[in-house]
Design brief:
single chain; alpha+beta; Trefoil (Acidic Fibroblast Growth Factor, subunit A); two-stranded antiparallel ribbon; actin filament binding; Actin-crosslinking
Amino acid sequence: MSTDKVRSTKLKFKGEKPKKKRKHDDDDETGRSSRRRKQDDDQEPEAWVFPDDPTQIRGPAFIFHPSDPSPICITFDSTRNRIVLHALDRDKTEDSGVNPSLLERVPTEVSQVWVITRVAGASTINLRTGVGEGKFLSCDKHGIVSADREARGPQEEWTPVILPDGMVAFQNIYEKYLGVDEAAGGVLQLRGDSEEVGFAERFWVKIQSHYKKEATEEEKKKKAGLIEEPSADEANVNRMYQAWGAGRSVVSKEDKKEIKRAKKEGRLAETMLDRRAKLKSDRFC
């Protein structure tokens, strides 16, 4: 790997403002050790960290899977306009010639980064490619995953669920999960038709530190009543037009509580589902 690629591990994106490094104690983090909290607080704004809550999954994100023999990350090839599962063991550091441990992995090029956006009042997210014209990750009713759409609709909505071990599962509008599947010839590909969350459906997700802190501060303000929550009508309108993802979870007992909590605010009314079913656009066939 060239020196330039090694330097690119701290990726910066258009519109980001430089922030000074701060140290503080984050007292309202739950479900994580104080050591993890302190490490996150000491990170520079562009450092890659793990989210503790689904609301923190925003901004540039690095999504990878502990596959064997090499972990892989979800990338987008803008030249061929297709999703590629890239073997991370190819990205050895030039100085040492060895691979970092799994949880120390960070993106080494922009094609390995997805930009995550969230509609106000919704628990669903959109994943857009960080290169090219910005295409959204989508999944049709047959479980075929692609990234070739410039507009977002129901099939581009995903519900992230942080599991007890810290990994993340992504559920689509068809109540199925994103997973890694082995196609003919041993080629790995993404599918979106898994009924349950198993090894293939668990991903590690890293976000940039300042986005995590931003989400944490917003949550504090909401609890303090400093940020007004969207009304039920406003939330339904948002979900109708931009964030339709929801559904029942079919996973192990250990994960059901986490999924129920994560999806509590994101379920659609039956009227929304009925309207979606009546749409005649080719996008929703």
